[in-house]
Amino acid sequence: MFDPVFLSVAVLAVFLVGLAKSGLLASIGVVGVPLLTLVMPARDAAGMMLPLLLIMDAIAVYVYRRDVDWKIFWILLPGALVGTAIAWALSAVVTEAAVRLVIGVIALMFVIDAWLPLRKKLEGLPPSRGWGTFWGAVAGFTSFVSHTGGPPVQIYMLPLRLPPAIFAGTNAVFFAVVNALKLIPYFTLGQLSVSNMQASAVLVPVAIGGMLVGVFLVRRIDTTLFYRIAYILIFLLSLKLIYDGIAGSFFA
């Protein structure tokens, strides 16, 4: 299993997720499982990534424990619980390709909307509970299927224009809880196999290294530049997800 091709792809995927978990360019974490599916089945990829995510979550929560907007966290969490439960119930019939397609379309619409003048009028408004519950549910669902809960949360949080550290800290605590909720379902579905756990153990240093690099940079990057890069990355990733979703749904 640990051939050069697998290790190369896995190291890149886990390092990018580590950068995202640090709060630096959080949108880039969505490529983790899609990259791994190049060298292993999608369900195994998600299962292998979960222990690494939990380790990175613990580090991120410690680093950003004082940089959390708890109001936003409690707005997002109830929806995430519902979305996770729905995904577990439908895990046997929902394909990953379909989820990628939906996420890609939503993310693309979000970026286009963000670049229109109307979005500028909405930025800085107080966080909406109904809107946050909806996107929390979407995040819980997509996170369960393929650890791609980042874009839905960013759709809700980016217009709030939070300082980068608060943005990172709120993300860290939210996804630490969401990922912990997936342990029992993943175990019952057979995704936490011995081989997956062995691969996770080998990649722990890569995950920690990616986080350390990201943590070093996130408090030093310019806020305007931070959001500009985030929007551009979400746009590019939305195109990739749409392509993967269409290819997997109609040409598999």
Protein traits:
about 250 residues, mainly alpha, 12 helices, about 75% helix
Number of helices: 12
Q: What separation lies between the terminal Cα atoms?
A: 24 Å
- The residue ranges in which pLDDT falls below 50 over 5 or more consecutive positions are none
Helix/sheet category: mainly alpha
Q: Please, what is the average pLDDT?
A: 83
Number of extended strands: 0
**Major sheet size, sense and barrel closure:** none
Radius of gyration: 17 Å
The 3D shape can be described as globular
* DSSP strand content: under 5%
Number of domains: 1
The percent range for helix content is over 70%
SSE sequence, one letter per element? HHHHHHHHHHHH
3D structure, described in words:
- It contains 12 helices and no strands.
- With 252 residues, the protein is mostly helical.
- The protein has one domain (4-250).
- It is globular and about 45 Å long.
- The chain has helices at residues 4-21, 32-36, 42-63, 70-89, 96-114, 117-122, 129-146, 150-157, 164-181, 183-188, 194-218, 223-250.
- It is 77% helix and 0% strand.
Secondary structure elements and their pairing?
Layout: H1 4-21, H2 32-36, H3 42-63, H4 70-89, H5 96-114, H6 117-122, H7 129-146, H8 150-157, H9 164-181, H10 183-188, H11 194-218, H12 223-250
Helix pairs in contact: 1-3, 1-11, 3-9, 3-11, 4-7, 4-9, 5-12, 7-8
